[in-house]
Structures are given as C-alpha cells and as structure tokens.
Amino acid sequence: MRREWQVFYYIKQDGTKPVEEYIENLPVREQAKTLAYINLLQEKGPNLPRPYADLLEDGIHELRVKLRGTQVRFLYFFCYQNFIVITNVFDKHTKKVPLDKINLAKENRTDFLNRYTGEELRRFKS
Question: Where are the domains of the chain?
C-alpha cells in the first residue's frame, strides 16, 4: 500500500504564511517548477533522494530547487505519520545551509507541533 503524504506550509502565529507567499510571488514558470518539486516530495516523502532532498539535522530536511540560477532551499519536517510541514524558505548563497535557517525551522516545528495535532491536520486535508 502506498502512503499518501500531505504537505502543509507553516503558518506563523500572526496568520502570515511566508512559504506560501514566497511561492505566490515567483514568476509563473518558477512557481510551476517549485510546485512540481513539492508534488514530488508529497509523492515520495522520506524516500525522495538527493539531489532533490537531503536530511540536514535533527529531523529537518531540505528540498533543493534551482530557480533563476539561485539555489533555493525549502526546509521541512515530517510529523503525525503522513504529514510534511514546510517551515521556511530562503535563497542559499553559502556552501552549507546557514545554522540560523536550520534553527528557524526547528523553532517553527516546535511552534507548529504545539498548536496543531494530527487530528486537526486531517480535518484540513484537501
């Protein structure tokens, strides 16, 4: 049986959606490429291999997309058996993913898990 993964974009406590807003502000062609990568992540989950995705540390993963010649990273985590939460996104200009971006993903994960249960997420399923 194939597991279905559900992707969510992190929502800050003030209601803003930085990842969703980032994607919406991309040119149409880059939106399409980004959404294709996210769909691939949804399909493969933790089995999505490099060069598309990689584990960074402490359960934080990166989705690796190249847009307009820039390496873009979407950081995410898995939770509640079949959910993927994309916590933050940034243009990568250094060899390694900056520690502050990983720490932000961890903080967003903690906030998300404190505010949402698996049952609540299942009700949002589209």
Answer: 6-124
Phi and psi, residue 124, nearest 5°: -80, -15
Distances (CA, A) of 31 to 27, 44, 79, 87: 6, 20, 25, 18
Tens digit of each residue's pLDDT (9 = 90 or more) over 98-109: 999 999 999 999
> For the segment 66-124, what is each residue's pLDDT rounded down to a tens digit?
998 999 999 999 998 899 999 999 999 999 999 999 999 999 999 999 998 877 777 76
CATH superfamily assigned to domain 6-124: RelE-like (3.30.2310.20)
DSSP string, the chain: -PPPPEEEE---TTS--HHHHHHHTS-HHHHHHHHHHHHHHHHHGGGPPTTTEEEEETTEEEEEEEETTEEEEEEEEEETTTEEEEEEEEEE-SSS--HHHHHHHHHHHHHHHHH--HHHHHHH--
pTM, entire model: 0.92
Give the H or E element holding residue 65: strand 60-67
